Amino acid sequence: MSAGCTQPARITLSQCGSRTALPNSRSCTVNSFTATLARNDQLAAEVAAHPELFRILTGERPTGALHLGHYFGTIAERVRLHRHGVDTFVILADYQVITDRDGIGQVRDHVHNAVLDYVAAGIDPEQATIFTHSAVPALNQLMLPFLSLVTEAELHRNPTVKAEAAASGRALSGLLLTYPVHQAADILSAGANLVPVGKDNLPHIELARVIARRFNDRYGEVFPEPRALLTTAPEVPGLDGRKMSKSYGNAIGLSMTADETAALIRRAPTDSQRHITFDPQQRPGVSALLTTAALTTGRDEHDIAAEIGDGGASALKRFTTDAVNERFAEHRRIRGELALDADFASRVLREGNRRVNEIAEHTLEQVRYAMGTVY
Ligand code: TRP
Predict the structure, then answer these.
(1) Do the record's keywords include Nucleotide-binding (predicted)?
(2) Could you tell me if the CB of 289 is within 6 A of ligand 1?
(3) Regarding beta strands 129-132 and 55-60, do their DSSP bridges make them parallel or antiparallel, or are they unpaired?
(4) Domain count, the chain
(5) Rounded to whole angstroms, how far apart are CA atoms 375 and 371?
(6) Which of 22, 80, 113, 347 is deepest in the core (most CB within 10 A)?
């Protein structure tokens, strides 16, 4: 298995910011969202020109079936980078499932289903490394030295941790508080230097950079500072206009059949106005259907609204159902075929876990040498 077993070409500190200006280490620091945006186009161009210099790591918490929100939010971009030749690591962060809940649930099913969706979406498991968080001891061991590099105050300041803690309606667990640190361990243990993320995840990547930098300053150069590649994908609303989430019952699953999709869309809330217009504030239901139709056809919401015009909600729902079912027909067909082989997902994960363990053990060895804990 080729791609997974070697470290990627190291992006040295002097290379990691702008290549033309300020070739010193501090030019790598991206302190604000504005700075990241300004750098993002240049980074995207670098990746396009030299995919072989990059290793990406992204993934999901396996809390349920993957849906269109995951697909358009992150999976499509991951597939694009993977096809372009970027070394691709996908983590199924099973330990992260229990950051904000008591039980781990049907985690094995969710993990296996996610593997089928990744492969059906175009991630080639021969080239990419799909793995599970819990199966990589060396990754998890990095947590201890990494925890020493951050303060409690820094962890409490993280806006995503705060938002997720508030949304969970529960006391903040130690695992949720330290979530950006284990995410840093995921990224850095695998030697990834690029993390495609949405805006919400930028503080995590910033902390991963801080951890890499502090470790390198304290013990010697071991980690590349990973860079965030901002995904500009639009947020996919759930069918009721709220955030798409399985727990709201407003999510179109990638693995749903055409009939299940039709039934779900039929039940979606709309309004009594017959003429179809795109207006997310006043008409969340109608607009969510239009956005779903727009994303799946690659067209514009207003265009589709104008085309449906006085056809009303029923015509809009028919249009959206056909658009989703057509867009994902091939995905669902491949997925169904893969699912016939009950051992397929396990084989992919065994190989992915084997590869990532090899890399993470190598990383941990470098950490031990740097820290002088080799006995
Ligand atoms: N926290 C991410 C999510 O909820 C999943 C994840 C785990 C991740 N480790 C990561 C994403 C490292 C990017 C990099 O979707």
Answers:
(1) yes
(2) no
(3) unpaired
(4) 2
(5) 11
(6) 113
Atom from ligand 1 closest to the CA of residue 182:
9
120 lines ligand 1 (CB under 6 A): no
21 in a structural domain: no
pLDDT digits (tens, 9 = 90+) for 108-154: 999 999 999 999 999 999 999 999 999 999 999 999 999 999 999 99
Whether ligand 1 lies within 6 angstroms of the CB of 91 is answered as: yes
Q: Is residue 168 part of a domain?
A: yes
Residues 228 and 272 in one domain: no
Ligand 1 closest atom vs CA 58: 13
pLDDT at 15: 36
List, for residues 15-31, the tens digit of each pLDDT value: 333 323 333 334 444 45
Give dist(CA 288, CA 197) in Å, integer. 23
The reply to whether 18 falls in a domain is no
pLDDT confidence of residue 168: 87
Let me know whether 161 and 299 are in one domain.
Answer: no
DSSP state letters, 138-199: HHHHTHHHHHTTS-HHHHHH-HHHHHHHHHHTSPPPHHHHTHHHHHHHHHHHTT--EEEE-G
Confidence tier at 52 by pLDDT (50, 70, 90): very high
Domain with 322, as residue range(s), is: 255-327
Same domain, 66 and 147: yes
Pocket test for ligand 1, best of 131, 186, 200, 244 (most atoms within 8 A of CB): 186
User: What is the model's pLDDT at position 289?
Assistant: 97
The 10 Å Cβ neighbour count of residue 373 is 9
Which pLDDT does position 32 carry in this prediction? Answer: 66
- Global pTM reads 0.89
